[in-house]
Amino acid sequence: MPIFYDTHAHLDDGSFRRDLPEVLQRAGGAGIERIITIGVDEESSRAAVKLAEAHPQVYAAVGWHPNHAAEAPAEVRPVLRELAQHPKVVAIGEIGLDYKYLPSLQGGTPEDDARHKERQAQLFAQQMELAVELGLPIVVHQRFSMADILAQMQPFVGRLRAVFHCFSEAPELVKRILDMNCLVSYTGILTYKNGQNVRESLAAAPLGSFMLETDCPYMTPEPWRKSARRCEPAFVADIAAVAAQVKGCSLAELSAATCAAACRFFHKMPAPEA
User: Fold this and answer.
1) Closest Cα to residue 185, out of 90, 99, 258?
2) CATH number, residue 47
3) Residue 210 dihedral angles phi and psi, to the nearest 5°
4) Whole domain around residue 232: which residue ranges?
5) Closest by alpha carbon to 216, among 9, 56, 49?
6) Has this prediction a pTM greater than 0.90?
7) 259 inside domain
8) Given strand 58-62, what is the order of strands in its sheet?
């Protein structure tokens, strides 16, 4: 059975509280040998570290998501620096910009939007600076904000590697991101009937330049989506099946390329034993 990694999961989500051991068992049965669980604020980052400590196949990323910027302290680097010392913390993330929930969409003003965006940008900058300091890659969240994300990252090009997670942007943006020595990562959206744009994006990404993820408990892929089932790491196998079709390669080739890309990118994560 080909092995795969779930490079972006939220195992601290409450939906996994009652049956996480079974979730991890199913993942192993599907060939999902490693899972990276992602922090979105201090509480979830600490939970990610604890999950990584408790389960040998789990690794952690610690970070402050842009949608939690309003609750973030003025300076997030000290707590994240502390957490990132753990040997199983392999990235700073998930971090970035998100313009979906601007204040003006809920009765706010353009000035409120500007302050909202500025706070997200400050948070993003702090965490990129910390990643450079610690020599860690970052996991980037981008929604309706790609132009500002790329502009803010420019001073860090050559000093910082990033993966643009849950990627669904146009193929021409794939090349621009790869030219920055960064990667892209694909979720269950790849399997959706209306996901042709995501499949076109994947088609433009050479083997070795992308990874696979679930973003669970979100983004349930087909065929599980029809039953409204919670997404979980085992479903990377279903995403991989579609990805191999798009790339015109075998599952074994896709396994080798995506797992090697993950080990290079998350360089604190040890390579699997031969």
Assistant:
1) 258
2) 3.20.20.140
3) -140, 160
4) 4-265
5) 9
6) yes
7) yes
8) 4-9, 32-38, 58-62, 89-98, 138-143, 162-164, 183-186, 210-212
